[in-house]
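lol forgot to send this yesterday, sorry. struct tokens for the thing we talked abt
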């Protein structure tokens, strides 16, 4: 049964209902044609066993403290439960009472370059709830929760002051629809935020060998280097964030509100979406040592260049870093949305809210990007690249000499393709030919997509 029925073919199987492939690393199964295992976390411990493993590490961060306070995993059946556990509940605050929501700040973005690079948009926005960082001093302790509707995942980070590092966590929860099969409507409406039948708490170490690896982007220098909070656009005017003060970013907020009307989202009351403050996350980063970001998107400079001549040399420089496999892709130079697709998504969502369209018939709201933006977002390769160029842009971000070399994926080091063994190249060719939904398919459909011709160019290069 499929949790993610269409667009991305990124589909998690319900726990226990699909045979696990046993975590094998060697491509397609030999005999028979078992149903495709599409869960990147397949084979890892779950539930109480995984909770015990995380808590046994005795991390010193505030998220571990809350999860590990009792003798059993805390019971969570909704996002609201999780936010309450962490102390990140956002209450309506019609009179701007400073004592309400004193422990939480919030913002949202309409384009993400994290795990949701292909799914976050102004309707399926990525919400961030965080510890306030109002003074220009480091916080003693802080946490951030990130959630976008569409996937049964909540991303978390907290600092561990004693160990002087960041702890990343992933909550994989089980929406009730998993037992029968989830529709877009189950995953992309408020339905996903409650009625959970269970969850597993993963720490970054446990999922390092999966395509959801946090450290790939949050510890970009590899083991032993500094872990970082990320925000590729750090300064006003935050082109891809909910920032109602600017006409261009106001549009993103208005599209969100046109779809969602008065409903709350990610636990944020509708009335508090409008004052979304990207500055709250910027401050948290700057005050805690993350004010210098890799390959940062200088919004003001890029906007000025765009206004002057329709292109931005600054952005082209950022993109060149992603093309060369040196940095994660930057946000799109402008707004990547196709107005027609976006309007259709807003209309369909409104129809579901009003009851004129059954929830089960909601189309996939993720499909709102301009086709012409996909290469610039590095979802697809830049047109005209040769096989080597395709491998660098599509694979090197996760297969390089910086990452933890004890992970088996280090054997496929795109930076030194000439030294990669024949056997490993053959594995890569097999991985390239798997159905995109398969959890072993490369490149992972969560991040990238290749045409048949591009796939063949990559394979031809690997045959050499
Ligand atoms: C492909 C790169 C990438 C991966 C992989 C990734 N992140 Fe991030 N993450 C980002 C970026 C970029 C941001 C900034 C906000 C955005 O673009 O949506 C971010 C933001 C965050 C934030 C908000 C705090 C901050 O750093 O700004 C949290 C929490 C977070 N990520 C947690 C995780 C967790 C947990 C994982 C693993 C399960 C993970 N991330 C995997 C790129 C990544
Ligand atoms: C988002 C990160 C990511 C990207 C992008 C990516 N991979 Fe991977 N790759 C992984 C991870 C994680 C594993 C280990 C888990 C697994 O076996 O699926 C892996 C495993 C592999 C392996 C098996 C390595 C071994 O010996 O265990 C090969 C070969 C491979 N990838 C090839 C590719 C190719 C070819 C591309 C680009 C066309 C690519 N990958 C893009 C994350 C990525």
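and heres what i got for the seq, position by position
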């Amino acid at each position: 049964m499929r949790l993610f029925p269409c667009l991305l073919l990124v589909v998690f199987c319900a726990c226990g209902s699909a045979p696990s492939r046993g975590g094998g690393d060697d491509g397609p199964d030999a005999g028979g044609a078992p149903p495709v295992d599409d869960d990147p976390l397949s084979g890892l411990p779950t539930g109480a066993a995984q909770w015990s493993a995380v808590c046994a590490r005795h991390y010193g961060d505030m998220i571990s403290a809350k999860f590990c306070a009792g003798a059993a995993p805390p019971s969570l059946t909704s996002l609201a439960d999780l936010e309450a556990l962490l102390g990140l509940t956002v209450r309506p605050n019609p009179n701007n009472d400073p004592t309400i929501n004193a422990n939480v700040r919030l913002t949202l973005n309409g384009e993400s370059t994290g795990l949701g690079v292909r799914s976050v948009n102004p309707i399926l926005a990525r919400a961030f709830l965080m510890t306030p960082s109002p003074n220009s001093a480091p916080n003693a302790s802080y946490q951030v929760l990130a959630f976008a509707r569409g996937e049964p995942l909540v991303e978390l980070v907290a600092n561990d002051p004693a160990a002087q590092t960041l702890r990343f966590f992933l909550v994989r929860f089980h929406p009730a629809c998993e037992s029968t099969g989830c529709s877009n409507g189950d995953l992309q409406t408020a339905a996903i935020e409650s009625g959970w039948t269970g969850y597993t708490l993963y720490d970054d170490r446990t999922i390092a060998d999966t395509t959801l690896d946090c450290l790939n982007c949050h510890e970009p220098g590899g083991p032993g280097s500094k872990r970082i909070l990320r925000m590729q656009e750090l300064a006003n005017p935050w082109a891809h964030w909910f920032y109602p003060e600017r006409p261009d970013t106001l549009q993103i907020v208005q599209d969100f509100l046109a779809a969602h009307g008065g409903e709350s989202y990610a636990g944020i009351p509708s009335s508090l979406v409008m004052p979304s403050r990207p500055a709250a996350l910027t401050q948290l980063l700057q005050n805690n040592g993350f004010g210098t970001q890799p390959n940062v998107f200088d919004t003001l400079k890029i906007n000025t260049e765009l206004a002057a001549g329709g292109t931005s040399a600054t952005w082209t420089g950022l993109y060149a870093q992603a093309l060369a496999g040196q940095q994660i892709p930057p946000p799109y130079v402008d707004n990547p949305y196709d107005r027609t697709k976006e309007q259709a998504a807003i209309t369909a969502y409104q129809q579901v809210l009003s009851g004129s369209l059954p929830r089960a018939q909601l189309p996939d709201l993720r499909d709102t990007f301009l086709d012409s933006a996909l290469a610039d977002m590095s979802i697809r390769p830049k047109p005209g690249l040769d096989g080597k160029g395709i491998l660098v842009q599509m694979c090197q971000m996760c297969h390089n000499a910086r990452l933890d070399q004890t992970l088996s994926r280090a054997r496929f080091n795109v930076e030194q393709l000439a030294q990669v063994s024949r056997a490993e190249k053959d594995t890569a060719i097999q991985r390239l030919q798997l159905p995109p939904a398969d959890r072993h398919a490369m490149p992972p459909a969560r991040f990238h997509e290749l045409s048949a011709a591009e796939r063949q160019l990559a394979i031809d290069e690997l045959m050499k």
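The CA atoms of residues 159 and 421 lie 39 Å apart. anyway ping me if u want another try
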